[in-house]
Amino acid sequence: MTSMTAPKVGVHQYLGLIIDYNRDKDLE
Fold first, then answer.
1. Alpha carbons 19 and 11: distance in angstroms, whole number
2. What is the DSSP letter of 11?
3. What predicted TM-score, i.e. pTM, was given to this entire model?
4. Cα 2 from Cα 23, distance rounded (Å)
5. Is the pLDDT higher at 3 or at 14?
């Protein structure tokens, strides 16, 4: 893992999970 790309990828994945979670909650 490089110090530059790894954190950005982690943040994008984390935000993606939050968006998917909120989307699932809205569908219910």
1. 12
2. H
3. 0.47
4. 31
5. 14
